[in-house]
Protein 1
Amino acid sequence: MPCQSSRWSLVPPGGSQGVVAAATVLASLIAQACFYSPIYGEIDEATRNSNSDTTQSIEETLATGTSTAEPTTEPPSVCGDGLVESAEECDDGDQDDGDSCTNACTLARCGDGIPGLGEACDDGNTDPADGCNNLCRLPNCGDGLVDADEMCDDGNADNDDACTTLCKPPTCGDGLVSVGEECDDGDADDTNACVVGCKSAQCGDGFLGPGEACDDGNANDLDECSNSCSLPGCGDGVQAGAEECDDGNATNEDACTNACKLPVCGDGVLTPDIGEACDDGDQDNTNACLASCELAACGDGFIHVGSEECDDGNAQNTDGCVSACVPAKCGDGFVYAGVEECDDANADNSDPCLDNCKLSACGAIDPNTCPGNSKSELFEKNVSIAINNLGDKWDDKYNGTIASMLCNDIIVPASSLQLIGGMSLKVGMDHMYVGDLTIKIVSPDNKIFTPLSRPGPEAPLMDNGVPCCGENSNLSAVFPFTLTDSAVVSAKDMGKTLLNDAIICKDENPKIEPCEFKPYPGLAPGKAFSDYKGDAAPGTWKVCIGDSGSGDFGLLKYIGLTINRVKYAPK
């Protein structure tokens, strides 16, 4: 069998020192079918057996390190025989030029001109710009090599340096956000989030961007586009165009309505700040809100439908519409002038006003003249109170005040005749010098009237007890005097015609009968008994007497207060 296995070189590797080792190798090879010697070439088993001499010679040679045979020439190496020989870097025994061993028996490498394993190309030159670079790769941005269609290639993914991942110097519009750029969307559309100059869109840049109704690129807030990039409109806080105001809020009741109008009565918006109580936006004066923005009320002159029957705009109760905004009618208690003679609000025909609002015969002039409607009552008091000159607390103590006077209470009880139609006072007392005396009446509601104030002097004296004195005639309890509005002679002239120490109502000639005098208040409070006309009669009345002269003694014995009590307000 011919040898087909690998060849073996039996040249001793270490000269004579390698004989032993060579012998060991030889013994191994002899056991095989064939071996190869650089001296003898390829020897198969048949040749070896037929040529025992040769075999012996080989063995001797190997044993001694010398050969008796003639040397032979080594055959030339053959690339492609599968044996790595001599100058071969490799020999894979095939014709595949694209594997790790070329058909020239050289190891495949970039630049050998043969596209091998792991190579995208191999043009066998050092020109990196010819379509196959020096790394045997096809041109690619990012490979660190500047190819023909590349302006730069720094081999990294950093877009913030001098060369972008597009292998171009950074420029606005390349779609890559580089140093100095706020954005870069790679388009020329200035209506999106990134505008020309690679700036982020913002109000005021002059480009209509997302969310903007307008953008005029200026700071004029009063033109057709506001500084907030919105179209001018009511409620934007900027007064513009036909707007009277614009406060930018949704409050309709303040100084600027939501319609950007100044509030006015009738705009339908209640604005208390301008004095409105209501505002229903109409000019109807018959509903709850008048055209003047005031709440409808009785007396405003407008008939409030559903609430009022009439409204004449006044508070008079004597016309056709009374103050309650209902038509006047008999029995409402108000006398309708020109229509009714009376109206006592009852159906009692025994009183001066009949139920048809006509006066009865007695009430035609004064209802108090009808039977049972008036009564004169005397409230009297018999006393014995001395006024002397021995340091008495009343003598010469009057100073104009009630507290400085001797007062007596008169109790007037309640009755159906509550009102005062008239009044008079009767006094019985002993006293020297009537010109020292002041008499005052105090009603239950503290209304003061002075029927007598130090008579005698032509000019009235001050109501304070000084100076002394008035008329020097005397009074006697046996001859009491009456003070009444109906008298003819004024109390100022009491005793005027008498000599000193004469007695009033006794010594006059001719006599004063009845002994009555018209009240003389002088400078003190009140004018006449008629001051009390129409006032309530019941209660505690006071009759007070003050003395303004020392040494003139006296004794108060009788007080009689006559009141003409009436049912109706006196005329």
Protein 2
Amino acid sequence: MTQTKQDVVDNITRLRAMFKASQHSQARLLAQTLLTESPENHSYRLFLMQALKKLKLWDEAEDLLVKATNDHPEYADYYFQLCLLQFSFSQCEEAKKNLLKAMDLKQNSVPYYYQLGCIEAQLGNHDLAQQHWEQARALYSIPAIQKAAKELDIRCFLSSCAKLGDQEAIKNCDCTDSIKNTYLYCNMNKAVAKDLFQGIDHFSDEYLGAIGKTLGQRFFQCTIANMDIESPYFTVKDGLRKTSGVPQHYIRSVYLLGSSRVFSPRCEDSLTMASFLQAIYTEGGDPVRVVNRSVPGLPVENDFLHFLQCGVKHDDVVIAFTHIMAQMPPAKLDLTAKIYSQINAECRNRGARFFVFVLPHAYDIKSPSDRERLLVDLAAETRPHIDYMGEQRLAAKLFSPEYNLPGKSLCEVIQRPHDLGEVFLDFSHWNHQMNELMARHIYDFISTPFLTEPSFKQTDPELFSFADAKQTSLAYLKKTAVETYSGNQDISQWIAEVKREDFSGKKIGAIVMNCNPFTWGHFYLIEFAVKQVDHLYIFAVQEDQSIFPFTDRIDLIRKGTAQFGEKVHVVPSGKFIISSFSFPGYFAKEEKIDPSETDSTTDIVVFGSIIAPALGITHRFVGEEPNCAVTNVYNRNMKFLLPAMGIGIYTVPRKQSEGLPISASRVRQCLKDKDFDTIKTLVPPSTYTYLLSLPDTQQG
């Protein structure tokens, strides 16, 4: 569809509004849609790139820009944006090559000269850096932008100071704390970096960039998990950070729950706390696998959801690590302790063991180094919302007689004197050497028999039960989904299109159907649902990845349900119900893939947190799936997630014919065999007439 100039202006205005409101997921979806419609529009592509960066989908952003430079080598901004992305991960040589290509296409650009100066400074070429910054300043001749020129001067000065390690000059500079923070907190000079990464023979600027990626997150396996990534040093698969050295055969598992300090974002796979712990078990001949289920930045409620996915068995070990929290009030302390207590109780029920460790940060060092003192001061200035004593108050509660949880504080591990040199990468994260030391302390603690086993304290189930912990954690999942998708204009527009206003205030149900094609089995499920509710939405899967086209499938549903009149509303499912966005594995289900390779969490949480409340849906009906493993897992996940979102889930036994379930796949096989006598018993007359009308090529 050709867009007018006004269409483009309106779309860009929408995208800018989304960025201003921090609706980056929505901006990404809109930009992708617009770019599909207008693939030559550079603005849409750059908005998509910015959205990917905001969502921390660095690899996708880089792939987009590399393709853009190949497809449009005449467009300087693509090279410049690729340069900025590479520079942010210390890939200075590659960044410089792309910047020089941009400068060949667009001369006398202030940002280009400024960035070239930054790259040269990072490479240690300070004289060249100063020359490029002087060129940038010389181009500022318009009085209206003198303020910007002054800020450029400051940033050039600070960047130079950061590369030289002159922290005092940065602290005394006449600029805002946020600008200082950029150069103190984020720009690590080479001398400090080499000290922090000592012992790593392959350390380099490129290495630092490769392991320093901040990942996005996604709804996955009924939790919030990490986005997958694979690189020589940094791997996340199925939402989990890789643990190196996991044995092929093991008899029990150790699960780690926690946030970024367990994830170890600045350490390669083999140097995380989990990998060091794995190495200790392996060296001792103990056939154990260590599973790192940490997710940066998320609270204890998400830990509980990950615990539910562990499948903990007899003799397994679950280890929870505390989180740094913003303003940890007493209620949050209590909730954290109660959730850990419920995990502990469930582990005991299964014959497993649970431990909780309170992790330290630089604030807890009694005799800090100059750098550690600087990190503490900087954190106090730039992160005033963090409750630095909260974890110690939490420790007192966890190990008090009230809860008596097994575990300890690890603050003693970081105390000086030690011979590790600098270990803190920033205020709360440490390097590989401290990971190894932490792993050793943890192993020694959990492997040493207690002289006196801590007496088990069960939280009064009337005050807080396992079901309460589950409900609380799922409420957090729903809240996150609402925050992520509530402002999505595509969802809002689709809801406005399908909503039946006359359904308001009634008991409303929903069925999602592909109907490939529509059968008596589908009719039976609809007939059952109609009897349970006042009104019923039927969402016909809109994505055209089925044997029969969507237009035919939805027409067959409408004809097959015509007898129910206004009580049934058949509508397209849109982009957010069983689509390549929300549930891509659904369309591969006939390829005999492992159900674990597919995931329906996004589909379910969007339905339960956004779509169902907007349409007043309180009941969802599904048919039993005895033959399809993927759909069976989908139904199971709905039973786990939807009730916590206020939606009842009802499973209806499949209608049978001649002792076999009636299914669309059975009809398709009969069609292939040209067995119309059997088909006539499996489908309504309208579907039968439709199938008879197909050309022979489609019948066979």
Protein 3
Amino acid sequence: MFPCSPAARGFTLIELMISIAIALILIVGINQVFSIAQKTAGAGNQLSQDVRDFRMFQGRVAQDARSIVLNDAPFFIIVGESQPAFRNKSDQTAAPDPKDPTKVNNPFGGAPIRYSLAAVNDRVHRIDRLMFFARDLFTRQTGNYLTISSATSGYEAYLWYGHLRLPNNNTISSYHPDAPALPLPSSLGWYSPGQLPDPSTQNGNDNNYFASDWILGRQQMLLIPPPGPLDPMGRSEPANSNTQPQGILSMMTTPQSYGSARQGIPHPVPIYASRYDVALTSIDAYRQFVSFVSAPQWMKNQFGAWEWAGWRFLAFDSLNQSGSRSDARFYGNPFVQRAKPMGTTPVSANQAQLYLAAGAAQAAPILVRGCTHFIVEYAGSFLKQDTNPTSTTFGKILGPGPDDKGTIDFIAEPANGASGPPWTRRTRWYGFPRDIDGDGHISVFKNGGSSGAQSPDVLPLRDVLRFANPPLTALAFRQATQFERQYPTQNPSADYPTQGGPLGNFNSNSPDPLYVCAWGPDTTTLPRPKLLRITLAIDDPAARLNDAQMYEYVIELP
């Protein structure tokens, strides 16, 4: 036998194990590098998409703002609303109470912290609405009964910005183009952002519960007066009893196909369905109508005439979408492609075209996906203040506006950070209460006090005017705030804490707090907004971003 040469020896078991371990470490490390790179690229792509979405939104709003009709419009409405919601499913899973988004873990230990509805963060969201009329060249966003688009255009429109109501999965699977707003018997309906499911049902808010799934919409209703009483808009379809709007209000506010209902269709199409976008009226005609319904005292007492007239145009006819005027939201349906056309029956060419037309129409209002906050605040000359920059009381509230020089309301801040003069001015914004300086209090004066340095927080005009010196009489106070139709609290508050506080708790039986401002024929002697501040937050439903991206845009009104 010949001894083995040392050069011919193989690897020992230990050497093989070490080699395999090194290879595994390299594989895991390379995988981590690729995973981090993929997440970074995904987050970067989402950030770029968010910027593109905001630029698109900014351009759209800027164009609409240039055409706003403010002084002789039927109304100009801002609705501030707060909605608690989890950011996404993982956020809900990690919460101390998966049924209550307002409860968060206390970083110092102890019982969970509970946010009030005045907080603005990743658990308490703003879902404001903005509604106005405009004059410009507008083209229809939807088609007629069997068409996707229409060449019809006009120079007047009603525009609505806000979060859309979305269908749940049952409604999607049983979607029927002839009933684009009303769920069929096998479905459960459409849900507002963050809306809790009906406890009596088994299906819930499948697509509009988590904030990162919400969709900001822009609905445009073209206003075209009917050329004749018998054949509105030159309708080519034969007229019948189902297509003729009944009464002046239906004629003005029922969307047209032309004719919102057709022979053989079980349900007429309400305005909030986003199916048709032509109303047979004009800005002047609807203003006359609103002025008429605003006049009788009995209607003011029963409805709060302005709120009633404004909401009535938005949606609330005999086919009320929710039974509450406070939740007027247009429908959007980005999921039509998931539904089965006309159920299980064979689809003819006309039926397929009808399905396509209805789906395209309800997708038209979609503006920004993943919009977790839409905040609308206004500024103007609503106060009379001490405007002498050398005075130690510079910025003091003297009474209701407008200011003699039309000066936009401001907050006086000492230029040296302690006391003034000298002073700097900061625009005072009004709206649903919002904490701007992050001190946990929302008040006219810092730290929730009743005097001293003024706070930059956003408040209703009512809560600011209560600090006028000399104090206002009850009549003067009411006259100055007449355009404020609804408040988030029954009585003025010196402080809205962002934890707990007077705005109520989530899951309570009380109605959601709203701040509603409506300017119109009954407020012609009062100041109107000169500036709008819109704050937008855009998030990623896939959770590739740590936080939603916030953007702010200030609009100068005509």
Protein 4
Amino acid sequence: MKWYHSLKVKNLFFFIIISLFFIVAIIFALTTIREKRMLSKADNAVTLATSGVVLELMKEQQKNEQLVEDMADVASVYVSKEILKKLLHISTDNDVVSGGLWFEPNALKEKSAQRSYFFHKDEAGELQEVLDYDREIATTYREMEFYLLGRHLKEGETFWTKVYTDPVTKVRMVTVVAPIYREGRFIGVASLDLKLSLKQKKIFSELLASQERYFFLTDRTGNVIISSTQQTSGAPLSSRKALRELVAKEFAYFHRHLDKEMPLVKQLLSESSELTPDEAAQIAYEMQHISGHHDEPIQFRSILLEDDPLFHEPSVVASYYFPHTGWYMFISIPEHVILSDTIQVYDKIISVTVVFAIFAALLGYFLIRHSIVKPLESISRQVSQIDLDQEIEIKVKDKGEIGRLAESFNVGMRALHEAREKERRNEALLMQQSKMAAMGEMLDAVAHQWKQPLNALSMYAELIKINYEDGEVDAAYIEQFQKDIETQISHMTDTLATFRNFFRPTTELHSFDLRRVVDDVLLLAKDELTKNTIEVEVVEEGTLELYGSENEFKHLLLNVINNAKDAFNDNGVKSRKITIRIIADEKNPRLEVEDSAGGIPESVIDKIFQAHFTTKEQGKGTGIGLYMSSQIAQKHHADLSVENRENGACFTVTFSELSFHA
């Protein structure tokens, strides 16, 4: 018995598992409570950490939106690049890097008016005008995102683009746009470009000061606008696969109500090949809320991460969605920062629980061992010493369930002893019946094989009388007649010996030529084949020399030929031919016996090698011939199979490498 099969080991494992289950249950309960407490405290911690940031972002948003609206209002009355330059100078912050006015073709009355007025700050912070912006880019500004979005706004509305790099100034920025209307007609777009990364030291100084949190701000497509770098070891946050998956998950949550079938979505997709269906749906959603004057608040939610991608420990991630700008802000605070005091209490509770569980497991183990395991071990030792031929009872001191088990075992042993005595008597009777059945099967088989030579002897008796009356009997005739009679008698003797060897394996094995076996069998069956007008053709494609019992293999071939003969007669076939092929193929050496008797019904072809299975009428077949043939093939390390071909059945004996060697 293996050590792990022992009841003592199983008992120990049982209590270990129970203890582990108890510990896991306590830990799970405490973890659940801790997660709820963590979320509660996390909301407070995130609110404290971000309230100032969110407020400053809103102020910056409103200030820049107001500026671009002023630019659009002035341009709707009078277009002047001097006034535009002064308006851009109003912003004293370094976040505004460029701005401009962009008009529809022929929108201005003045013939000499420019189509666009665009200024950007150089390295010294001075505004420089970019003349004819379209010459610097591959397309036109009217095909750029900021202009396409501005075209769909109503008067007095603003909209923010995603992060992009300006093709002329090469600055990575975001743009807030406002439409320009004159007398109710859209004539262009005012734009204000911001490089928000310059605001890090001002707005995000509180978040940047802490080494125990990280944050990043993205646009509506997930492009990072601003991010902390303390926890990234120099790698950008956008390169972290886990963070990208987190952003995608939060986007799906905030975008769960988007409608991709809105008319504006289809219009945006038709106007720009750069927009995705999701991005177009989000833009349409934001524009719809702007148009409806919805004062939608900033959306917020917090989630627990089991393994933060940067801290590599549990953390709380707070997500903010700014509907008007389409921006998202993510802030992560590790668990140990939020629950620094609570974690110590939980650790003490878990330690006490583990100690108690181990003590309870050991106590239960020794109790069960004394009351159950030891009595069962005593029963096991006594059972292992029982002689089934003797009536012996096992003894145990236990008076409870184990004692009743031992008594029931003793009752069963007495019944088993009586049953074994009865079984011995039945076995002797069955052995005698088995011998008689085997003898009957052998006689059936001998009768099946002797039928042909007995018919031949009967025919010879009729022929000698007729030939004698015709005067054809002479010394030579008598000599040939004697040889034919001896051949049939010899075949009957060999058949009897073959069947005896089948049930009692012979040791007389030797190498023999397969062609000689075929010739001998055809000689023995010559008269029967002639009588039934069956033509036999032998095709020899090489020489095969087998190792085994030559007489048994003759028996196999004779059975197959007799089966074909019976099929000719049963099916009433007139053109009767048997083709025997000896094929010495290196890869597939085989013997084929093909007839033209019409084939075997598909419903029974898989059963014809079963013992006592026959398709003939009762009394015409024993169903043992082909079964014995398959057994003989197996003894020669070969396989006997059958298939239907064009005109009849083909029996194939396929030889293996062992068929040719001792």
